[in-house]
Amino acid sequence: MSDWTDLIPQAARNYIAGRRLDEVECIVADIAGVARGKAMPASKFVHQDRFFLPNSIFLQSITGEWVDNPMGAFTEPDMILTPDWATATAAPWTADVTLQIIHNVEDQQGNPVPTAPRNVLKRILQLYEDEGWTPVIAPEMEFFLVARNLDPNQPIIPPMGRSGRRAAGKQAYSMSAVDEYGKVIDDIYDFAEAQGFEIDGILQEGGAGQVEINLAHGDAVHLADQIFFFKRQIREAALRHDCFATFMAKPIEGEPGSAMHIHQSVIDRKTGENIFSEPDGSESIQFMYAIAGLQNHLPAVIALLAPYVNSYRRYVPDFAAPINLEWGRDNRTTGLRVPISGPAARRIENRLAGMDCNPYLGLAASLACIYLGLKEKKMPRPECIGDAYMNETDLPYNLGDALDLFSDSAPVREVLGVEFCTVYEAVKRNEYKEFLQVISPWEREHLLLNV
Length: 451
Description:
Blueprint: H1 2-5, H2 10-16, E1 23-29, E2 35-41, H3 42-45, E3 51-54, E4 78-83, E5 89-90, E6 98-106, H4 117-130, E7 133-147, H5 175-180, H6 182-195, E8 199-204, E9 210-215, H7 220-239, E10 243-246, E11 262-268, H8 285-305, E12 327-329, E13 336-338, E14 348-350, H9 359-376, H10 399-408, H11 410-416, H12 418-435, H13 441-447
Parallel strand pairs: 1-6, 12-13
Antiparallel strand pairs: 1-2, 3-4, 4-6, 5-6, 7-9, 7-10, 7-11, 8-9, 11-14, 13-14
């Protein structure tokens, strides 16, 4: 076992130090960001350098349905999965001593499988590397803690706090509100420490039971891996205390939605300097190009940032979510915000992505837009001064419209990969078709006896 334990991060080595490792979970993220793979006894894992899964896992919708392969005849060939040792991390909520390891996904010829979301993000990062650039990412995660919901026909409600009262909304940044479910937060911190993850901060957001976790800036794949792991551990922490954690974009009617805000800058690999700033500290022309790229191409990738029918309920005025692609300095009403910072930390905050998106695809989509902007060298619209909610929307109103924009954008399809885009669209259109067959309570209440 020492042959491979020397390859894993120190936090994982600390977790298993002096104990017998019972199990290893070999996992990959599917289109939805759900962990798929195999769990095996550590004694067996030691003797395997790879394992196999059918490539059909990337054709499975969020409902579990299998989508017909849009690329033609399909025989479900096996993919080759090999461990990415740097991702090994504890699963500290399990009864046994267990490690999780994200695996690289290749076909039988050794090529990256283009429909694997983690590979899509790596593809975008390679485009940056070819230009001598390195993106730097800092994501923010918002989610709700809610009461257990065992009947999908019943509305989701806030959890019961330690005071015996349900969590209240409109308490953004309240320390007392966070204390109401402090035991869940304590477990999140403990799990993160065991996993070797750095939390920049935890705060109460504006919704009832809504929490935000900020992560330290860094490499895009590494941070997407962390979000992938975090979603699982936060759910496990909530279950320990008789509530659910949900990453739905809009779980509770009348409350704000949950976003995955993405702070982005780009470093010149030769100089190590932020290309968004000039040597004198002023904003560079490339900074403007990047904003323009987001304004011009984000509509085509909204289907990745807002991947479900529920996602579009978040884009409403005055609910802490953008409705357009205006940009502004220190302006939280805009879809693209430029936070206050020094020249070295100059960045663009993309406020469009929902927390329900696959983190690999959300980061890939946002970075793809900036890349296209840097290559196209166009200027953005004038800065929005004032309330961007007063302006018209730039966003599609539903998943069907978003998929139409996604399908029609040749530049986006080229940078993300045509095969991935084709498969992703097929999966999402299947989900949208299923949703349209469901009759909602609103329809029964207002149409049953009135029309």
